[in-house]
């Protein structure tokens, strides 16, 4: 997450390093559905170390003797990590090769791949078809008062964090947003890259609105004219007059305030909520991004401004290493949680 984005819980309580070793960033996908048990697609649950998702997809295509387009996956996972995720491989009318020929454990490169399970399924695994991710993260070289760190973690568990998009959405040095502006100005890009740049532009605008709501303290409470998000879904309702019923649902994390994922059409929000959104996006750069997204045909959508990590736990591993575990819904970022603790440098960044 960009250091320029404001924190909701106050000043940093620690400084640390993450991903000193791949095992320090351990992620397991939470499946969005069970395999049907029959069909021309083979679902493989794979544990990988030192490989990103696209690299494994290419290995699977080569292993199965199919085009890369026959390989599906729900989410992208980092290389400098240990991750578990599902892939699908389309194998119409034939059995899969022996998975033992796919596995590897290379001490020289640190790359490891293991097949943890397999099942047949009727459809290709589409992007986004997961319920979320479970994280086990180890922060090393931690500097900070343990009492203050514990209080901050307790506050995060109770109140949640701003649901910022993480830095990986924006590419190295945030360059995807600048490239999106050039694309809107006429630069020709490939279809896959176009989707990436549109996503970066949308995410940047969302983060700007959310930053304004963190700054004024309204990221986790309702404003007049709020368009509410149902927890765990993209469903939106409102605006409607403030009531005890809304207050109860907000406190129970059943609903959340929302902010725009920009596109064509009118904003769903009104009154004070709309005023905050428009003011945050009134600068020239935001205007160019807004116009580009509208011209690209995207429609107005919403995203919750608040995120509460599930099953948040922590333990100290020696004098200066802190292990933090939690789960997040799909599309949410562990960096948004870590940023509320303090300044964390990423040893695995390239």
What is the β-strand count?
Answer: 18
Radius of gyration: 21 Å
Helices and strands, in order, run as: EEEHEEEEEHEHHEEHEEHHEEEEHE
Name the CATH architecture of the largest domain.
2-Layer Sandwich
Q: What would CATH call the homologous superfamily of the largest domain?
A: TruD, insertion domain
Shape: globular
Total of helices: 8
CATH topology of the largest domain: Pseudouridine synthase
Task: Return the structural class.
Answer: alpha+beta
- How widely separated are the two ends? 15 Å
Q: Return the domain count.
A: 3
Regions with little confidence, pLDDT below 50 for 5+ residues: none
Q: Overall mean pLDDT score?
A: 95
In the CATH hierarchy, what is the class of the largest domain? Alpha Beta
Percentage of residues in DSSP E strands: 25-35%
For the report, how would you describe the main beta sheet?
11 strands, mixed
Percent helix: 25-40%
């Amino acid at each position: 997450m960009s250091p320029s984005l404001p924190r909701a819980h106050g000043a940093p309580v620690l400084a640390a390093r993450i991903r000193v070793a791949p095992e320090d960033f351990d992620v397991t996908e939470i499946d969005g559905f069970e395999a049907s048990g029959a069909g021309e697609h083979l679902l493989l649950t794979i544990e990988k170390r030192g490989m990103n998702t696209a690299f494994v997809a290419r290995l699977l295509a080569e292993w199965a003797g199919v085009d890369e387009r026959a390989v599906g996956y729900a989410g992208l996972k980092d290389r400098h990590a240990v991750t578990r995720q599902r892939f699908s491989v389309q194998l119409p009318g034939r059995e899969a090769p022996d998975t033992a020929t796919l596995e590897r454990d290379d001490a020289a490169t640190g790359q490891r791949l293991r097949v943890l399970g397999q099942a047949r399924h009727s459809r290709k695994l589409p992007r986004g078809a997961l319920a979320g991710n479970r994280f086990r993260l180890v922060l090393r070289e931690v500097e900070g008062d343990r009492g203050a760190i514990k209080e901050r973690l307790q506050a995060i568990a109770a109140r949640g964090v701003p649901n910022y998009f993480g830095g990986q959405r924006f590419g190295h040095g945030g360059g995807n947003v600048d490239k999106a502006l050039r694309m809107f100005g006429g630069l020709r890009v490939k279809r896959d890259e176009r989707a990436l740049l549109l996503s970066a532009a949308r995410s940047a605008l969302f983060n700007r609105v959310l930053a304004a709501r963190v700054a004024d303290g309204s990221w986790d409470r309702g404003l007049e004219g709020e368009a509410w998000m149902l927890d765990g879904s993209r469903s939106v309702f409102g605006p409607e007059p403030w009531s005890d019923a809304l207050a109860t649902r907000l406190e129970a994390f059943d609903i959340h305030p929302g902010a725009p994922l920009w596109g064509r059409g009118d904003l769903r929000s009104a009154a004070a909520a709309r005023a905050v959104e428009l003011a945050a996006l009134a600068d020239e750069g935001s205007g160019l991004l807004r116009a580009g997204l509208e011209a690209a045909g995207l429609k107005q959508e919403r995203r919750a401004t608040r995120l509460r990590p599930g099953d948040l736990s922590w333990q100290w591993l020696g004098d200066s290493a802190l292990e933090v575990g939690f789960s997040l819904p799909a599309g949410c970022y562990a960096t948004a949680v870590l940023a509320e603790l303090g300044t964390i440098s990423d040893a695995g960044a390239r």
